[in-house]
Amino acid sequence: MTARELVLLGRTPHLGAFGAPGAADRAAAEAALDEMDASALAGEDIRAMSGGERQRVLLARVLAGAPSVLLLDEPTANLDPRHRFLVLGAVRRRAESGGTVLFSTHELDVAVQGAGGRVLAEGPLGATLTEALLSELFAVSARVTPGPDGAPLVSFGPPATR
After folding, report:
1. For residue range 84-99, what is the model confidence (pLDDT) as tens digits?
2. What span, in angstroms and rounded, lies between the C-alpha atoms of 114 and 133?
3. 140: left (phi over 0), alpha (psi -120 to 50) or beta
4. Is the same domain home to 113 and 126?
C-alpha cells in the first residue's frame, strides 16, 4: 500500500455506503500529506518507510478525515525535532479553529508547547489538577470533582466568560 492509498482511507467516513474517493477526497488527502511534509512519500510503499515517515503518513490519514475531535497518543513519537513541531502546529491549528484536541506525550519540549513554554504547576496531583489551572491551560471552564474511588474526575465546559 502506498502512502497516498493509506491517507485516502482517512476519507472513508465521507464516502457513503458504496462510494469511491472523488476529487474532493483526493484533494483532502494531498493537502494532509502536504501538511505533514509527506507529499514526497505519496507513492512510496509504507512498509519501506522509516518510523518517522510512517508516523507522518498515519497522522496525514487522520487529518484527511477532517475529524472534529483528535485523540492522539504520542503523536510526535519517532519524529525529528522539525517534524515534531510541524505536527504540533497542525494540532494547534485544529484546536484554534474550534476542534477538540487531546494528546498525551512524554516529551517535555512538546508538553511545554501546550502551556506556551512555561511551567504552570508542579507537585502532587491534588495540588496541580485544579479547576483554576485547567481553565487557564485550556481556556475553558473546568470542574474537578472526586470520583467514586476518590480519584479526581475532570469535566470541561464552554469557555468561561471574563
Report:
1. 889 988 988 888 888 8
2. 13
3. beta
4. no
- Domain with 152, as residue range(s), is 120-162
What pLDDT does residue 83 have?
A: 92
Residues lower than pLDDT 50 in the chain: none
Which element (helix H / strand E) includes 137? helix 131-138
Looking at residue 57, its pLDDT comes to 98
User: Residue 64 class from Cβ within 10 Å (0-12 exposed, 13-18 middle, 19+ buried)?
Assistant: buried
C-alpha Rg value of the chain to the nearest Å? 18
Examine the fold and report which residue of 103, 119, 135 is the final residue of a domain before the chain moves on: 119
Q: Are residues 23 and 90 in the same domain?
A: yes
Shared domain check, 112 and 145: no
Task: Name, in order, each residue with C-beta under 8 angstroms of 50's C-beta and a sequence gap of 6 or more.
Answer: 78
What is the spatial distance between Cα 80 and Cα 76, in angstroms, rounded to a whole number?
A: 8
Number of domains in the chain: 2
Q: Model pTM?
A: 0.70
Q: What pLDDT, in 10s, does the model give residues 99-118?
A: 888 888 777 666 666 666 56
Question: Is the same domain home to 106 and 124?
Answer: no
